[in-house]
Hints:
By secondary structure, this protein is of the alpha/beta class. The protein is built from 14 helices and 12 strands.
Amino acid sequence: xxNTIRTIPIKTHPDYTVSIGPxxxxxxxxxxxxxxxxxxxxxxxxxxxxxLYLPQVTQSLQAAGFSVCTHVFSAGEAHKxxxxxxxxxxxxxxxxxxxxxxxxxxxxxxxxxMAGFAAGCYLRGVNYVQLPTTLLSAVDSSVGGKTAVDLQHxxxxxxxxxxxxxxxxxxxxxxxxxxxxxxxxAAEAIKTGVLSDEGLFSLFDTDDFTADLxxxxxxxxxxxxxxxxxxxxxxxxxxxxxLGHTAGHAIEKCSAYAIHHGHAVAAGLAIIARAxxxxxxxxxxxxxRICGVLRRNGLPTGTEYSPAQLAQAALADKKxxxxxxxxVIPRKIGTxxxxxxxxxxxxxxxxxGWEDR
Length: 357
């Protein structure tokens, strides 16, 4: 099954297909051509990914009849901001892209967010496609249409919804990731298992979860796609996908984004799982199982930042509504629920689940 090419339809507005398998960047032109007519494609990528995959993607797009222009921005979460967004928009304008053209996001979650947000802003919206090259972006951010940049006051505070026209996930890219980036993606996949799937969760309690990355990506995307189809604009069910993210985003902010997203989410997931047990919202050994699997995959289960620091950072969280904020609580592996609490209780909740790293 490791070499199987999987396709997953996402029934949103518009519909699109996620293609998952080995060697797909070299075929991205033909796969995108099945979703879009011939046009100009602006490939947006970062300085790390450009050296690895940009020539291959450009060649494939041109062979499929697309005209290609490229823009490379500096890699890293620190560059997911309005300044970089402005650079990308000015590039699209300089290249005179029209509404019938397309933006291609080649890279990880930062690139997907930046290119997708730019595509949604430019000319009030042009098509875009996702070409994820990290496990984190493959299992999560490439699907669902959320795009955003960070502001000084918090993560992903400026953004919009724009569904891609196609997603092409080349699993060969995922096999060569350094351990830190692989663990980042594992965190989001483990989170998905806690939300939905004991079987998926159990894959990360084995010696090598990378044996069939295509299967893991497909299961994560199938679950996320089913949620997004029911709640495309994040008004209800889709908010459960934020499991671990309230504390996780606070950790990222406190570290000035020096801590990677997946590692922050892992710590946030552990904190809320321990807190849920301590407060009687869930039964043991849910937290112990979650923390054990996180540690097995090289992920943290605690943070150096205090509950007070995390609570203060979370005040700017986009999940806050007035004086309340919604937390996702694991009941058991495969089942979670939403719980709305006053923001004034966040510090005590974080304290109930806090553990020094």
